[in-house]
Design a protein that fits this description.
There is one protein chain. It contains two helices and seven strands; from the N terminus they run βββαββββα. By secondary structure, the chain is of the alpha/beta class. The strands form two sheets. It has a five-stranded mixed β-sheet, covered by helices on one side. The chain has a two-stranded antiparallel ribbon with strand order 2-3.
């Protein structure tokens, strides 16, 4: 997907995840409906950092803009600022991965300074192997970046 935008630079100000997603353990739903850690499997990075990196990489590829996390590394100010709040990220009955929340886009020259928009994304999960989980989360990051790109 390619999106033409009026912005040349984007700062990812904040990515906020629920507390249970801040661990490096891979969390799956248990038989009793409670979450449980997948034994012996941990993420290579925190989900917050992974989502931030995924947004940077995907937004840059989709829009052609320069994208970086806070603190902004360039002398000039970014054209847009993105904040993401994830309310829920979970594997549903080990067949889908779902992520829901909202994001805000701040642009000083936009009507009302920007917008806040909800998202609810779902990706199929063929199995709970490390590779399938990693691919599903990567797809969620790309889908969210596509939603953000169409909003800026």
């Amino acid at each position: 997907m390619t999106v033409r935008t009026s912005v040349g630079s984007v700062e990812i100000v904040d990515v906020s995840l629920p507390v249970y997603a801040e661990t490096d353990s891979v969390v799956l739903p248990g038989d009793d409906g409670l979450s449980e850690n997948l034994s012996g499997v941990v993420w290579a990075d925190t989900l917050e950092r992974s989502l931030t990196s995924g947004l940077m990489r995907n937004l840059s590829a989709i829009t052609g803009a320069q994208v970086a996390p806070e603190p902004w590394p360039l002398a000039s100010q970014p054209d847009a600022e993105i904040t993401v709040w994830v309310d829920e990220i979970r594997v549903t009955e080990t067949t889908m991965v779902q992520m829901a929340g909202q994001f805000a886009v701040y642009q000083a020259d936009a009507p009302r300074g920007g917008l806040v928009q909800r998202f609810d994304l779902t990706v199929p999960l063929p199995n709970t192997s490390n590779q399938a989980l990693s691919q599903a989360y990567g797809t969620l990051w790309r889908l969210l970046a596509e939603r953000v790109a169409t909003a800026i």
